[in-house]
Design brief:
four-stranded mixed β-sheet, 12 helices, DUF1722 domain-containing protein, UCP037004
Length: 317
């Protein structure tokens, strides 16, 4: 269950690593990236604005809607247009990112913002707040199943854990299934990730199981494409306490013949205490792992649910 994890490849906005590349000559040092994730990741850093030749410091830019197009303009002089340069840079840069497992972008950036960006009209009036930075929009269009998250959202423990879980599933898929021409590899992947998927979405757990059964005898590449898309969408759902409890109760059923009445009650109590917020997830999981060592079960031992990412990252609250 406890396994060694290879380093994952993470794209990241350079300012989040402490590089002084922002428009004001500063940075947005992200503690999690610099103090935790750095020990488990190979970083691929980028600053799109510096990438297109903008200076440090530089005049601020903004997203502007004009003639039904989103432009990237100087915030004080709308005649200075960086749109084409940024689109060309983004397309070329993102084309080289097929090997990444995740990407962390800078919030509130007209190039890197992932969501809720301010959009202005040509006169400088804010007209809405649902824009996406041009670079990040290109990234998500070219790599729709790539886990992408903003720095600010990673300060939320649930969103941080969810992002990292998706990163490692993405890496596992590309290592074992993406380039395989064997149906058995897809079946094995699904079998190993069943309870992890269930912890995010029971509906996806059922739906993906039907896909793998492949009763329609669809071509493998088509099947893999749909499976991976559904999987990565499903994993965006937060694995909350109720869902985790459901999974652990399923797992508890595998020990019904081995456990004493006392052991069963102890595990049931821990699961309920976790559901009530009295103990962390590690408490019932640790007891389950103890029972699994005492009463080995090959199917359970291969489940990524028990080790979705390195325990040392300290994410499993």
């Amino acid at each position: 269950m406890d396994k060694q994890f290879p380093k994952v490849d993470i794209g990241i906005s350079a300012c989040l690593l402490g590089e002084n590349v922002r428009f004001d000559g500063g940075h947005k040092n992200l503690y999690f990236a610099n103090q935790v994730l750095i020990n488990y990741a190979n970083y691929h850093r980028v600053c799109p604005e510096v990438g297109i030749g903008m200076s440090i410091p530089r005049k601020p830019i903004r997203l502007v809607e004009h003639n039904e197009q989103i432009l990237l303009l100087d915030s004080r002089d709308a005649s200075i247009d960086y749109t084409q340069q940024m689109r060309e840079f983004s397309e070329k840069k993102c084309a080289a990112y097929s090997g990444l497992n995740g990407f962390i972008v800078t919030s509130k950036s007209p190039s890197c913002g992932m969501e809720r960006m301010k959009v202005y009209d040509i006169e400088g009036k804010q007209i809405r707040k649902d824009g996406v930075g041009i670079f990040t929009q290109q990234l998500m269009q070219m790599h729709p199943n790539l886990p992408v998250e903003e720095d600010g959202r990673l300060n939320d423990s649930q969103l941080r854990e969810n992002f990292i879980a998706r990163v490692y599933v993405h890496a596992d898929w590309h290592k074992h299934v993406a380039n395989s021409d064997k149906m058995a590899d897809l079946v094995k992947f699904h079998s190993q990730h069943k309870y992890q998927i269930m912890s995010h979405s029971y509906q996806a757990y059922k739906s993906l199981g039907k896909l793998v059964a492949n009763l329609d005898k669809r071509p493998l590449e088509e099947l893999k494409a749909e499976y991976f898309n559904q999987l990565m969408v499903a994993l965006k759902n937060i694995a909350g306490r109720k869902k985790h409890c459901n999974v652990m109760q399923h797992i508890q059923g595998y020990f019904k013949k081995q456990l004493t009445a006392h052991d069963k009650q102890e595990l049931t109590d821990l699961i309920m205490q976790y559901r009530s917020g009295l103990v962390p997830l590690l408490a019932p999981l640790t007891l389950i792992k103890h029972f699994l060592k005492k009463y080995p079960n090959e199917y359970l031992s291969q489940q990524t649910y028990f080790s979705p990412y390195p325990l040392q990252m300290g994410l499993n609250g």
